[in-house]
Amino acid sequence: MNFPTSFEPQHQDHHPGFEYEMNPLPIYDDENTIKQGNLLENKVAIITGGDSGIGRAVAVAFAKQGADIAAIYYNETEDAAQTQKAVEGYGRQCLLIPGDITDPNFCTQLVSQVISKYGKIDILVNNAAVQYEANSLLEISDQQFDKTFKTNVYGAFYLAKAVLPHLKSGASIINTTSVVAFHGNEKLVDYSMTKGALTAFTRSLSMMLAKSGSGIRVNAVAPGPIWTPFIPSSAPAQQVATFGNNTPLGRAGQPVECSGAYVFLASEAASYITGQTIHINGGEIVNS
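User: That's the sequence. What structure does it adopt?
Assistant: Structure tokens below.
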């Protein structure tokens, strides 16, 4: 498949953005990239931010490998419905649960809903996040700083804590971090901080669970510039037009190009991998 190398200038005023408003639409499924199989046969996965972007691509890829999905989203109803339709198109179930993961009570309740629906949980993908650009530290309000940390870090912590009692040996937690956790970003200071925190959370929780003998693995995926609703909702329109062109591959990645890493980490093929980060960034070399 030929992936886009440039985009129409565009901007959305809502955060973290709606996929159905993007032009071109992100590519979340491709038979040549992710083929159908049984690597996750009859597994149950919770995916936050499952309505769009990387979350949708992961939900579809997991479904293609035999998993049932619980897609958690904030208020992106139309996008979430498209995710559900795509998952069900591969013969798997998709439970949609709207809500705010910054609320620990909601996290506990959604886990109960998933257990009630499917009877178990095998995979947690902490993918939901928000980001806002700022040209100066002085532009980052206390409210923005608080929201970014609560969504990106607290949400992952609350959900891991709520899910953990239901996970058995062989289960997997996968956190979506970012290339900016490793080299920073001058316009995304607070966002970069949260992704660094998630990297430390991945490494520390993986050690804790490994030493406890739980058999539960914890890893991360660190995307670079990926064409998701994040981009038009957080960047100026003209900046969007050349998004990703500064990577060695010369273009932004598509969500489907990330999803294989999540499938791998969630599967038994990665049974001896924990505490690690897979970098999907168009060729940029980072110190991980």
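The first strand starts at residue 44 and ends at 48.
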